Amino acid sequence: MHSLCPWRSQTNPPTAVGKYFLDKVTPITYFTFIMKNKWILFSYSVPSSNAKARMRIWRRISAAGAVQLKTGLQILPDRDDLLENMTWLIGEVNSLGGEALAVQCAQIEGMEDDQIEKLFQAQLDPEYLHIQAEARSLLTPPELPLLEDRTKELSAILRKLRKRCEALQSRDFFPSGAASKTLAVLDATSARLLKSEAAVAPVTAVARSQYQSKTWVTRAQPYIDRLSSSWLISRFIDDNPRFRFLEADEKAKTSAGEIPFDIAGADFSHQGALITFEVMARDFDLLHPAIIKMAELVHFIDVQEDAVLPDDAALLKNIIDGLVAISSSDHQLLTNALLVFDALYAAFSKK
After folding, report:
1. pLDDT recorded at residue 305
2. Domain coordinates in residue numbering, the chain
3. Which of 54, 172, 230, 244 is the most buried (most CB within 10 A)?
């Protein structure tokens, strides 16, 4: 460390070496070399008498995704957000009476970049494998159908596994492919779970040819389930759909050429634990990964089983709430919502 930087944080550091930036309140020295920087080296020491603080700093560094290069020396890829994170950490270490230093550099003598990248992969890949194993174990043995209570329990566990995977991805700076494999396992498990729910009332996939140029009828003031189901109809089921919204006091009567959905007694409505979106995806044989992921989010929002929604479901709910607020009619709301679900489907299809 001293060969890289013979001084720590001084109020009057030498000016002959490289380029430095000094914060007078929190002394921090950074070096920028002529070569493009690729790495951030971080070193710190906290008084041994403060064990709690030492553990807190260590957890913060680990949460940032740093890898220990040598004893007392951590490394991260050179990114603005990570450098800012280390800057705040330096200030915290200094406030504890310790010392900390962050150095940007282009290469590490004695190690190739790919060797360092493999250190990052070796740190995260076992965690991905643990998630895969836990997901696979959820439906072992794979007998179907499952009882409804067991299905809900497994759905909650699967949700937590997905959040763990997303947390790992946030610090997966050099993906080895383990993340995409883990997501594939989670998606496959979700699909099996959804099919397990559907197996309570097994159906034969209906022919889309019988549902062309229809008027799809549902209740007014559509929200997440009706809007997402309308998107499914528009994009995958009926090439030329029309929609009619029934007012609260209007009886659910339909004429020839009209198909009711998300209405009590309709073929396409809630069935057991399944919401309308899931029923339609099942009945029209649309259970592929992107739609399964969308079904999870829609289900969370529509059923509201958890006191706190997962972050991605909460974000989608906020967007839908915003569309409701700015739309002057149910038809305008539907038009706006179709774009949101198009974007969501495109994003999930790329993963």
Report:
1. 59
2. 1-111, 113-198, 208-350
3. 230
Distance CA 142, CA 252 (A): 40
CATH architecture of 1-111: 2-Layer Sandwich (3.30)
Q: State pLDDT tens for residues 46-61.
A: 988 888 888 999 999 9
282-306 per-position pLDDT tens digit: 899 998 889 988 998 999 899 875 5
Longest dimension (CA), the chain: 86
- Residue 16 sits at the vertex; the CA angle it makes with 14 and 18, to the nearest 5 degrees, is 100
- Tokens coding 225: 């389930």
Whole-number Å distance between alpha carbons of 74 and 64 = 11
